[in-house]
Amino acid sequence: MTTVDNGGTRPESWHAALHRLQREGLPHVLATQVTSAGSTPREPGARMVITDDAVYDTLGGGTFEWQTIAAARQRLANHGARAEAGMSLEAFSLGGRSGQCCGGFVKVLLEVFPGSTATLAIFGAGHVGRELVRLAAPLPWQLIWHDSRAGSFPDWAADQPRLACRHAPDPTASVATLPSGAHTLVLTHDHAEDRALVDALLARGDTASLGLIGSRSKWASFRRRLHDAGHDEEALAHVRCPIGTAAGGTGGDKTPYAIALAAIAELLPLVESPKRGEQRGLDPAELRHIFTDNAM
Description:
Layout: H1 14-24, E1 28-37, E2 47-50, E3 55-56, H2 62-77, E4 86-93, E5 105-113, E6 118-123, H3 127-136, E7 141-147, E8 163-167, H4 171-175, E9 183-186, H5 191-204, E10 209-212, H6 216-228, H7 233-236, E11 239-240, H8 256-267, H9 284-292
Helix pairs in contact: 3-8
InterPro entries: D-isomer_DH_CS1, MoCofactor_Util/Proc, Xanthine_DH_XdhC, XdhC_CoxI, XdhC_Rossmann_dom
Pfam families: XdhC_C, XdhC_CoxI
GO molecular function: oxidoreductase activity, acting on the CH-OH group of donors, NAD or NADP as acceptor
């Protein structure tokens, strides 16, 4: 089985790929051979990592491996744009289902990791923007950070996972590049730029949430102008300004850290978390088969 080369002299191993994909918040499946009987290409404990367009490491090759990859990718695609976290057990008779001459029997555990649960787009790399990016770093979100000024992003941003920094000389044009359903926060250095961004985001009409930094008087002025620009009351009600007030405000503390902390706290209940059923993991009957029915 051909694996993806990471640009060096050796293909990327499954554990290196797993670490990278989880750090970057990208969807993937970890396939682990949990049992084997008879003659099989590899022994229990062999692993490979599968994405929708790449494979890392091998379970031994052949039709059985291709079937494992197909099953993994089916689980990644089962729920449309987003996979659903969970586990499943695949059984392969190498002389039957897989048509291989080994004649053994293998069970493979597929663990689906759906990747980041949400996208947060931040417009503005000033003091509050920097604190927002730092606070959001441990959360399983993809971050897209925009600023119209050249050289505005700090050096440490290059090392933060799941973060894309985008210099956007025309900030409203960058709105068109956002994925549907993104959460957005507008906090640039310029009020006119803030208003133009809110106008463009409302015109898209598909953001999951829209927050604007500033005072109530700023929003009152913006609201009048945006209404005159053609945005109706339903659309304008979608904007949260000042950000952070729904989480109890900042208690009078207007430092960048306090504002960012309140804004993140406000976002947390708005961001959809992965759904979990009452039962998680494998069905107990499947587990019993793994440990007691390996003689098949």
